[in-house]
Amino acid sequence: MKLRDIVHEKNSLWIFGYGSLVWKPDFSYKRRKVGYIKGYKRRFWHGDDFHRGDKEKPGRVVTLIEDQEACTWGVAYEVTKSHMEESLQYLNVREVLLGGYTTEVVEFLPKEKSHSSLLALVYIATSDNPIYLGPASDVEIAAQIAVSRGKTGHNVEYLLRLAEFMRLSCPEVEDEHLFSIEAALLKIFPGGEITPSALKSL
Length: 202
Known about the structure:
Helix content: 25-40%
Oligomer: single chain
Strand order of the largest sheet: 1-3-2-4-5
Order of helices and strands: HEEEHEEHHHH
Structural class: alpha+beta
Number of strands: 5
């Protein structure tokens, strides 16, 4: 089902976030649900030369890679019809024009077992994108994140907030890729931890 079909048929639209959208949606929504989608794995393989990096030092942000054995956890937001156009325009600028992402419609499964699955819009950056960076080792990705900052903030904040979301909202889920990069990043800094004040000085 295409996005336009969902918009025309429904009084609301669900949007699935798996990166910065899990803690910083910045659009009006009615409610949110924690859950997951199947058939994709989350990877820090996309470049960011605006929000979390610049042209000289692009940051590393997440995208989704097709993998039939995988699932990716995040948050789905319900946007009512009255806010749909405004929210989609905002996300088009944030995710598509500035981020290089395209849209897909996926099945979202809520964490609450009593809730039914639903169709949601998701933003994905593919390998044919000019700022797509592709695979690298955990250490290489962490080193790039450690020195990148964009107009929205430091790339370190992006990584740490995503890891924090997973621990607080999905404590039963072991996201090896995410947590391995976080561990490699913390080794870069004295004492193996980063405080909010330390982030400001990076």
